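Sharing a chain and its predicted structure for anyone who wants a worked example. Both blocks are below, sequence first, tokens second.
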Amino acid sequence: MVSETSTKAERKGLRRVVSASMAGTVVEWYEFFLYATAATLVFNKIFFPDAGNELDNIIKAFLTYAVGFIARPIGGIVFGHFGDKYGRKHLLQIAIVLVGATTFLMGCLPTFDAIGYAAPILLIVLRFLQGFAVGGEWGGAVLLVAEHAPNKERGFWSSWPQAAVPIGNLLATVVLLLLSATLSEEAFLAWGWRVGFWLSVVIVVVGYYIRTRVSDAPIFQEAKAELEQNAAAGYGVKEVFRRYPRGVFTAMGLRFGENIMYYMVVTFSITYMATQLKMDTSTILGLMLLAHIFHAIVVPLVGRMTDTRGRRPVYASGVILMAVWGVVAFPLFNTANDFVILLTITGGLAVHALMYAGQPAIMAEMFPTRMRYSGVSLGYQVTSIVAGSMAPIIATFLLKVYGSWVPVAGYIVFAALVTMVAVYFMKETKGISLAAIDEQDRIDTGLLNDKEKIKK
């Protein structure tokens, strides 16, 4: 009876941790995706001078979008360093406030017609700060869950923060869809788009409150005590590269194809539908709305699959199907049939989920607790500079130069091949104990401590 009560209490506590992690992630990805969609539909028209070519201005808008990705590894390094020292919770609270403030200010920016080139410059500055905060968010959010989760269910529980990403995207899409459907195009471009950015304040307040109601995992508290007692037990980026370079580079390789796949499906596909198929904004956003709902449901299901089938086989299947999607997706888009396009987008997101859902568990299991925040943030965020940030730009450029989707498909296949190499070198860690990883780290680095001495 006591054991059953204890288990129920632990499950309740774990669900609270998952809610806290997801709350902040929903907020930050609502704002990040809001920018991505606005870059294609709005920013290219109001923050830049008319270039006489629709794709040229979209490329410029995507370049400001890429600035956020450049900032993300910097945020990951800074937040990871202090998160390993002081805790995941406090850094997550800082991240959610910072990303909320920058997003609200984006909604207040004057246009190019009002202040000239100062408009895109201010947009870039705010985008950098937003990316910096998002870069620190992911590692702390997934580790808050992964370090609380049972060993045999870590894939499932830690996939929930990943599901918060499409939920955040879903909220952004709903807001933009409602605004674009109820306002004229002139009103939407003049002021309507700003409402979505201002609404972020409400979501930030809710997310911040929820995050005050959880604490860091016991395994982190133990690692923190060891760091305080033993100056030789290092942490941070330098220590990660010195002790676990294989983990960092494997994480980067795993991330490469997955990150490109995501932004090809949710960002470049919007560009393709708007410029090549001439679909209206409301139809595009409606299709993306349904796709994000589907993605949010699929991610936890795949997370559970990584616990039963293993991390490597699930990930490998996603990489193979990514290459297939790259070849078949654009002919399906070209049918201009809404239902076929919806199936193509949801299929792409299902493929993405096979790679994305297991990443928190996979990366958490690559590093010991004393440097885990730094390790996962570095492996996850650095790749974004050459992967997700560049994917829409490269794809749009290829489309402009060649006037064909074939080079774009080749780019997707190339990204899949790079990630398959990382899968080959990846270790299977299904069900492994994080405490065992820490113990092995102490043995390997000569940092065995008297735990009784630490308690005193």
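Comments welcome. Residues 1-6, 450-456 have pLDDT under 50 and may be disordered.
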